[in-house]
Amino acid sequence: MRELSMKAIVYSQNDLPIINEESLYEMDLPKPQPGERDLLVKISAIAVNPVDTKVRKNSPVTEPRILGWDATGIVEAVGSKVTLFKPGDEVFYAGSIIRPGSYAEYGLVDERIAGKKPHTLSNAEAAALPLTSLTAWELLFDRLEVGQSNNEAILIVGAGGGVGSILTQLASKLTNLTVIGTSSRPETSEWVKALGADHIIDHRKPFAEQLKALGIENVRYVASLTHTDLHYTQIIDVLKPQGRLAVIDDPNILDAMPLKRKAISLHWELMFTRSMFQTTDMQRQHEILMEVSKLVDAGKLQSTLGEHYGKISAANLRKAHALIESSKVKGKIVLEGF
């Protein structure tokens, strides 16, 4: 019966180029049932992230897998031990990488990693936020341990992407840091500046020279969000002694020895870690999303929606994956409704 099944977009082969119609395709699957701490969410909108494309290309499967983690929707049912939400609540979340994703009509999410959707945003606008907000918040406050720093600066490499767009806002609105973003295209530079960056430099040109032209000798923090291996030597060069480097991408090799001379600390950020390992502080992600929701509704943070690709369909998702693989994304790509 239709009410016991749902539409989902899946992949079953990881070696297909995204232009191949079988790389992502639609099928009917059983409607999931919530576990003790789960919310069953009727999904309204989703966002597509680089991790979606990485998993599709690098994770072989033995049965069709649903990708996607960012979602907004309405809670339809709750597990027996749920206390934070009730049916009818509007939520947003980034899910767990070890569970089925959000390219579907329904999804399950542990209540400890979901938040109340900002009521001032549309479903599409809200769907752009969870994964990148969690990544940026954890990177800035849990990994780099930035406080109310004075006379310090942060360099955000790849400030125009999904994580960079929200990290720029958090750093400029919630700290006293001087925020320097990197960009290479005029439209992205304007976007990053509008989000609160104090300065923009071109990541195709030497970092040190551009910083000196701004009167900045070096920086206390670097958030390297993309192409870390390409910029690694420059990053070390512009970091202060005892500076801090946070990384989220997947460099082939990252040799920590060059950091020793300056006693630079290296911090990895992966927002899936807490849910993957069911850490004792897993509910911090609920708290972060609730705080992000409040900041959005107070007008202090804005959605990083870049492009709306229409309905949630295999064709539109293939188009979104192709754009992400081109590394020319500004903000987030969202899709809405089936």
UniProtKB/TrEMBL annotation:
Q: Which UniProt keywords apply?
A: Cytoplasm, Metal-binding, NADP, Oxidoreductase, RNA-binding, Zinc
InterPro entries tied to this protein? ADH-like_N (IPR013154), ADH_Zn_typ-1 (IPR014182), ER (IPR020843), GroES-like_sf (IPR011032), NAD(P)-bd_dom_sf (IPR036291), Quin_OxRdtase/zeta-crystal_CS (IPR002364), Zinc-ADH_QOR/CCCR (IPR051603)
SUPFAM superfamilies recorded: GroES-like, NAD(P)-binding Rossmann-fold domains
Tell whether Methyltransferase is among the UniProt keywords.
no
Q: List localization entries.
A: Cytoplasm
What coarse category fits the chief subcellular location reported for this protein?
Answer: cytoplasm
Write out the GO MF terms.
Answer: oxidoreductase activity; RNA binding; zinc ion binding
Respond yes or no to whether keyword Metal-binding is given for this record.
yes
A GO CC term attached to the entry: cytoplasm
Please list the residue ranges annotated as the Enoyl reductase (ER) domain: 20-335
Would you identify the family this protein belongs to, as annotated? Belongs to the zinc-containing alcohol dehydrogenase family. Quinone oxidoreductase subfamily.
Subunit annotation: Homotetramer.
Name-wise, this protein is Zinc-type alcohol dehydrogenase-like protein
Q: Which organism is it from?
A: Serratia odorifera DSM 4582
